[in-house]
């Protein structure tokens, strides 16, 4: 509890840094996280977005107490991970990007063995395993080996296994990577149910729709720093327009059309134009009205699409469109 009577954050980071030593003696180390501030409240779903190399994974490793911070201050559940890593890890659930299930064990046995790893009594582990099989919708697969499971089932089992110790915080690294849309939606439902039960979720994801669906708040990271923070809707309002008009023109007309659209935007039909190799994006408060102005200017696109702004527009504006290794 803070001095003003409000609940203290479950996680508090101030000036958090992570530097890896130089591979060559005498060289400079690599600073993966360059001094970031954020907090996570109990029962919140908090996301980390950013391109490859932005510092997301290094931050998650520090939060998981498997990589000590180089500098700054980090408190998790009121404890210091440098000193209390073992105690903190006992109250965490971790869902890695790659499944690390035991293929020689049945679905139920994977849960039972993980519970024993935490030192839980066998009676407690059996009772929790039964509940988690129901939660993951895997009751009918309980005695089968992993080879019979689909990718979505394996991810649900991985999440169920991470809950065997009834954690306060669940860390999820790219939880739905490689899953088909149906499996992703089933997994979203399971995670939403966990949040309703009071479990605090921390996740990284490359899927912007996933971040919009699951996250109460998120940070966009780039080059080891936080570019911005807020709810998905707050970030969209700050960095984009209500709608986006996507226009495609014949290849031979693309460059000329882009220049003409830029002139129209300067005449206040939109806020900005972004020229991509295959299409032109017009950021505007009213896509249909802007499209009417475009056609009145004798511009005939091959295709025209009006859509609402999304987190992807925010992400690409803050982090850029260049690929990062």
UniProtKB/TrEMBL annotation:
Protein name: ABC transporter ATP-binding protein
Presence of the UniProt keyword ATP-binding in the record: yes
Subcellular location, record wording: Cell membrane
Gene Ontology process terms (BP): response to antibiotic
GO molecular function: ATP binding; ATP hydrolysis activity
Pfam families in alphabetical order: ABC_tran
Gene Ontology cellular component terms for the protein in this record: plasma membrane
Family indicated by similarity: Belongs to the ABC transporter superfamily.
Annotated membrane topology: Peripheral membrane protein
Organism ancestry: Bacteria, Bacillati, Actinomycetota, Actinomycetes, Streptosporangiales
InterPro entries the UniProt entry points to: AAA+_ATPase, ABC_transporter-like_ATP-bd, ABC_transporter-like_CS, ABC_transporter_ATP-binding, P-loop_NTPase
PANTHER family: ABC TRANSPORTER ATP-BINDING PROTEIN, ABC TRANSPORTER ATP-BINDING PROTEIN NATA
